Amino acid sequence: MSDTRQSARFVAPEEIGELARKAVSRAETRQWSIDELSWAALRPEELTETDRSVVRFITFIEDHIPGYLTYFLDALPVSGTDLAIEEICFNREYFRFLISWANDEERHAAVLTRYQIEAGMSSPEVLTRELAEEGRKKFALPYENPVQAFTYTLVQEKATQLFYQRFKAVANEPVLRDLLHRLARDEARHFAFYSELVGAYIKRHGLAATVPDLKDVLSTFRMPLADTLNGYWRWSLKIMDATSYDHTEAYEALVRLVRDFATSRGNASAIDLAEFVHRIRGM
Asked: DSSP secondary-structure letter at 265?
């Protein structure tokens, strides 16, 4: 692929570098420790069967972080003499955020695992093997263009943030509520980074060139592990009913982002995406 065609797939390395530095700085100032939670105040008797089911479900999702990280490292490599220098520079700057993000997500997996054990929901031996059984399944996305992978993650992070907020609204157990608040706050930070990054693509390449990629993502979107986790669809439908949650609400965040960039020349693209999302959510 020529350098010109390669450059069309990215934004300037210095631009993503600045976004990554800001995101990592935000993460450093908002770090929290698993030991900060008031584990002695945990009240397992206040957990409903639905609460327990949801906690098990989200533990599987969060614990797949090695798979998610492997996907992005493969999709955006930071070494290879066959790669254009601009691509390596872009990927290297993104890597700075990726490692910070992975640290957050690994903490999510660890704290949910500890919660299950502290609440008597499972034993370390059983849970370790259950998570490994699902964790060894490969995670993949059907996208070649980086902006599509970033758009997918933007929507997924927003959807996860919304879910944790909805779950907290119906949960009563105090440690779980505190935990869900922390998880939602982290996911909001991750969403902010990807929102800024996709916005940088729109700014550089224009709405007309970018919106088709965004629509492709929305038309094929599945939440993580939807096609690999045993019983995912039956499980997720029960959770949606219990928490009044719908992941397609997150699509509206993408519509708002596009509208923010719309000018007199871009309004048609913004309206087109909004109508596309409306049709998807109506299905």
From this structure: T
